[in-house]
Each structure stands twice: as C-alpha cells, then as structure tokens.
tryptophan synthase
Amino acid sequence: MVDRVKFQLDDKDVPTTWYNLAADLPGAPLAPALSAATGAPLGRDELAALMPEPLIDQEIGTEREFEIPEPVRQIYAMWRPAPLFRARRLERALNTPARIYYKYEGVSPAGSHKPNTGIAQAFYNKEAGKTGLVTETGAGQWGSATALSAAFFGMTAKVFMVRVSFEQKPYRKSLMETYGAVCTPSPSIETAAGRAILAADPKSPGSLGIATSEALETAAGDPSLGYVLGSAANHVLAHQTVIGQEALRQMELADDYPDIVIGAAGGGSNLAGLAFPFLGAQLRGGPDVRIIAVEPASCPTLTRGRIAYDYADTGRVGPLFRMHTLGHSFVPPAMHAGGLRAHGIGPLISRTVEDKLIEPVAVAQTRCFEAGVQFARTEGILPAPESTHAIRVAIDEAVRCREEGRSQAILFGLSGHGHFDLVAYEKYFAGSLEDDVLDEAVLAAADASIPAL
Ligand SMILES: *Cc1c(COP(=O)(O)O)cnc(C)c1O
C-alpha cells in the first residue's frame, strides 16, 4: 500500500458559494475605499463605473456567502476541485516530523489560481453587456487568466503587461495571443498615464501601479470594455475562497487539520483564498490556525510599509484604499516573482495583519529559488517563482518542527506552476540572480507619495 498523498474531491464537490470574510471580521467594519475625485467614501454610483452590479454587491457586502453562478461553476469544474497533496517526499528529505500539505492551483489552464476570479469577472461583465475586457498584469499570470476567461465568454481582451516581465517572459504574451488577447508592454504610448511615465523615464521597467493606470484609463475611454482586476479587491479575494473551502474538506479526508497555513502575498488573493475559510472557522469558534503571509524582501509591503489610505495605481486614476502601502510611486527592483511586485495589498489582508490574525514575513528571492528547486526535486512540480515564497517558509517551519521535536501540520498554497519562468531558474543556476537590497532613501521617497489625509 502506498502512503496516501493525494486528496481529491469529485466534480460535485466544486463549491457552490464564495466565502466573504467581512461577515466574520471582529471589531469595526472594513474601512471603505475613497473616491479619487472627492475623497468621500466610494458610493455605488462610482463603483458602477468600475464593475457590474453583482460585483459591487460582493465588493461591499457583508453577507457570509455569495452564490456562484452555475455557468461559472461549470467552467470551474473543468479543473476543480484542485488537488491537495501531502508532501511525503519533501518531508523525508527534510527529515521533519511535520506533516506538510499543499493545495495546487497550477492545474488550471492558465497555470495559476487567477482564473478562479477571471472566469467570474468575465461572466458578470458579459451579463452586463460588455464585449471586451481590459486589465493590467505583472508576471503575466493574470493577463493569461483574463485572456482565457475572455475566450470562454466570446469577449476581446486587452492586457497591459509590466515591461520588465514582458521582456523576461515572452511566452506569457504568446499564450495570451493564442487565447485571442492583445498584450501591450507598459508603460506604453497608448495612454496619457503611460506617456507621462515615459516622458520622465524612457527606460521605465514599469510597475503594476503604472499598468493599472493604463488599463483604467483605457476602460474609462470605451464603454464596451469592462475593467477586471486580478487581486486585492474584496470580491476577488472572495472568488478565490473556493481554494480554502476545498482544502477544508480535503484536510478532513486526510483526517488532519493545519496548525499553520502559508501563502505568498502579492495583492493577497491566493493567500486569502486558501486561508480565509480556515480563519473564518477560527473566528466562529473553530480551531486556531497560524496564518503566514510571505512577501519578497525587495517589495516588503506588509513588513516595511505602513497602513494608510493610498492609491492602488501610480497615476492616481482609481480609488484610494486603506491598506499597507510602500507608497504608490514605489517601483520595485526587477525581481523574478513578478506577481509579487505590488506597492499595496488587499484591504482585507491588511486589516487581518493589523488585527494580528495573519503574520507577515519577507524573504529574499535566492532563498526562495533554493526552496523551489528542492521542492521540484522531491515533489516533482516546478513552482512559479511567486509560489516559492510559500515553499520557503513551509520548509523553514518544517525545519523548526524538527529542531523543536514537534509534529505540526503545515498547509501551503502552491499558487501556480513555473513553466513560463524558466529564464529565472536558468539565472538562478547560473548564479546571476541577486538579492536586491532596498535603499532606505528609495523607501522614504516612495513613502512620501502616500497622500496626507
Ligand atoms: C499573481 C500570483 C501571485 C500573487 O498574487 P496574489 O493575489 O497575492 O495571490 C502568486 N502566485 C501566482 C502563481 C500568481 O500568479
């Protein structure tokens, strides 16, 4: 008999609702987003310019569950429920008494968790009469998910991709084009926001904040286009909770429960997706879980940013959110986990960190690649550079368990595969991947861009 390592549910077990942590949040309600134009809390009218009605309900609602529309569930069922594995081979390699589990989202057609929300947003935009989607992407995972989602609903897709990633990962663009999308490196000359950045710095590597400004501007100029977003927003985090809801049931199949839940945090959506259903259970009287948000040391939003109202985009086109932020002018160094290069983070993640329900840590990228390689050689899956952040901390925790002689259950989110990220692995093996040291002056200058409210 082999050790049971794979915990797989049936098609019928695809969740029927998305979970909304706002329903179980202790203390004051989540601080509202503010209008960039008036500084007042963002009303439904202004939100209606950004998203269809059902998404507004999910963005500001406090009910515990939102029903997943059947057409969305049908598409989810093409690859969901996603498998949950026990990492027996990694455990043995680490000689740890810890029980390590991972939930693998790389089984989606786009290779990450991002289609969980892409499909939902495409569905609602199509229902609202939009014929195309426009968005920004960092590493290209969200752009790929948007392109896929648009294709499934017969819509066009326009994707502004952060230039440094566009150059590092040419095949992400090819994938988007195969799905029928148009992918443009950002900053571009197609928008006023992009032209302004290029005028100041013709060699700008771009950033998620800049690409967001370009996408928002494009959407605002064409009513047939729906703007969709890949992370951070409350409704996006809710859509991702299919991950954690499935994981709760799969841990039951494993006859276990995690002491620790770990996820890489960019905008916070895969971490929230995995961890919020466990956190919600804890807040309603269930077992305590230690939740760890792992971010790159070169974009240390949670560990070195501060909590303030700030813009999500560099061009200050969109609303302000109360969140941990490094300042909307922050342009992170060109590290290889492109999906983790955001100056801000989802307000719900920020709030749970503030309330000490989630613990943030920052890790250097070479240590992450080291963990990613060890994972590939033991478990066989080539992880996305973003996901290696979660693996790094899972390994560190498993080693701590060994040193303390404790057997804890560790569950981490393997948010995607790294098949399009081999240039980064190649650099790691060549020894040319470096750990950027952030200059205090750079952090202080970005911090100064946070508006005084
Ligand atoms: C986008 C992405 C992330 C980071 O985004 P979150 O919204 O924080 O989840 C992490 N891993 C992968 C594979 C991604 O594509």
In short: The first helix runs from residue 44 to 48.
